[in-house]
């Protein structure tokens, strides 16, 4: 198995590879102030990706629609979701088509995200916002790697 950090680790592949996430920079996540992501892999066949997502206390994302399903594993912190609060070790699944926004967490949250398609954001006035897709995330990730010297 190849040990890979950097853009080579972010393409769709059936080859095994290893990425040491502690060695990767945090890239700004679009639409969530002061947040970050570490792009681990993309799946261009379905427009999906696997990433670590960090949300700081007090930051909330915009209203958005999941164009594909999503899976989440909370690694650190607690995050409100619907009528419950998720914490470390909690896993949840969102079906495609779910539209929502959640209140900001009271503490830093880090989660593993597996997305099976893009996310369509909405502006505060309800107008369509940017599409958070593989192309945008890869562009932001490559910029973060270049800025970090990785």
Could you walk me through the main structural features you see in this protein, from its secondary elements to its overall organization?
The chain is mainly beta and 150 residues long. The chain has one domain: Jelly Rolls. The chain has one helix at residues 134-148, and strands at 2-3, 17-18, 36-43, 48-55, 64-66, 70-76, 79-81, 84-86, 91-94, 99-100, 109-115, 119-122, 128-132. The longest helix is centred in the last third of the chain and has 15 residues, at 134-148. It is globular.
Topology diagram in text:
Blueprint lengths: L1 E2 L13 E2 L17 E8 L4 E8 L8 E3 L3 E7 L2 E3 L2 E3 L4 E4 L4 E2 L8 E7 L3 E4 L5 E5 L1 H15 L2
Parallel strand pairs: 1-2
Antiparallel strand pairs: 3-4, 4-11, 5-10, 5-12, 6-9, 6-11, 7-8, 12-13
């Amino acid at each position: 198995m190849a040990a890979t950090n950097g853009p080579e680790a972010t393409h769709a592949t059936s080859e095994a590879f290893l990425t040491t996430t502690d060695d990767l920079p945090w890239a700004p996540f679009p639409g969530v102030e002061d947040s970050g992501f570490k792009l681990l892999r993309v799946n261009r066949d379905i427009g999906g990706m696997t990433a670590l997502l960090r949300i700081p206390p007090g930051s909330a994302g915009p209203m958005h629609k999941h164009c594909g399903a999503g899976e989440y594993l909370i690694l650190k912190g607690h995050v409100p979701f619907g009528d419950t609060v998720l914490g470390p070790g909690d896993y949840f699944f969102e079906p495609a088509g779910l539209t929502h926004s959640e209140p900001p967490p009271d503490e830093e949250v880090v989660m593993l995200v597996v997305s099976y398609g893009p996310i369509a954001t909405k502006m505060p006035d309800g107008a369509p916002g940017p599409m958070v897709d593989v192309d945008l995330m890869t562009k932001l990730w490559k910029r973060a790697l270049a800025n970090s010297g990785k």
